[in-house]
Amino acid sequence: MKKKTSIYFLIPLVCVLAFAGYYTTFLKDHNAKEKTRLENIEKAKKDKDVKAQRDADLAFEQAVAARKVKDDAKKAKDEVTAAEKDAKVKRKEARSTAETDADRLIRTIEEKRTALADITKEIGTLEAQKKASAAEGDIIQKAVVQAKENAATSQADVLLYQKAAAARAKIEADRRIAEAAAAKK
User: Fold this and answer.
1) Ordered per-residue pLDDT tens for the chain, 185 residues
2) CA atoms in the 13 A half-sphere facing the CB of 62
3) How many CA atoms lie within 13 A of 7 on its CB side?
4) CA–CA separation, 181 vs 25, rounded Å?
């Protein structure tokens, strides 16, 4: 019977030893896995911290760049505003100068118009005198032409009278010749 009692003792002992081996192996693997898991968690935390630091640095750099861009834009806007103000002042000065020049030109034009009106009046007077002189010349020319015509008419009248007398004489001679020819027949 001894054999039977030892089985009751040996089987649990073998089971305990098997369990102890299994547990030791499990514990080693579990500790290694747990250590790896903790290392991974630690590494993830460090990576997360590093990434957060990089992101913070990047955000800071972007903020600095955005600020620089904003400052550059403000500076450019200020320059444009200053240029617009300068241009506005120059336009006002140019307009003022143009108005002064225009006023001066208008006064000059008015003076020239007055002078032109005086000259036109003088020209009108001279033309009236010229027309009067031309009219007198025309009257004298007409008188000369009329005198020549009268002289020519007088000669023409004498010639016409002589031609008419000659024509009458020819008609009379032709009639006498015709009568003499009729008397001969």
Assistant:
1) 455 667 778 888 888 999 998 888 888 888 888 889 999 999 999 999 999 999 989 999 999 999 999 999 999 999 889 889 999 999 999 999 988 988 899 999 999 889 888 889 888 888 888 888 888 888 888 888 888 887 777 777 777 788 888 888 889 888 888 888 888 77
2) 6
3) 4
4) 193
How far apart are alpha carbons 146 and 157 in whole angstroms? 16
Instruction: Report the C-alpha gap between 134 and 127 in whole angstroms.
Output: 10
| Residue 22 CB neighbour total at 10 angstroms | 10
Alpha-carbon distance of 159 to 71, in angstroms, equals: 120
The rounded Cα 136 to chain-centroid distance in angstroms is 64
Structure tokens of 34? 């747990």
pTM over 0.85: no
Using the structure block, give the residue that is written with the tokens 């039977």: 4
Which residue in 107, 84, 112 sits closest to 99, CA to CA? Answer: 107
| Structure-block tokens of residue 33 | 């896995």
Q: Which two tokens stand for residue 183?
A: 């008397």
- Chain-centroid distance of CA 33 in Å reads 79
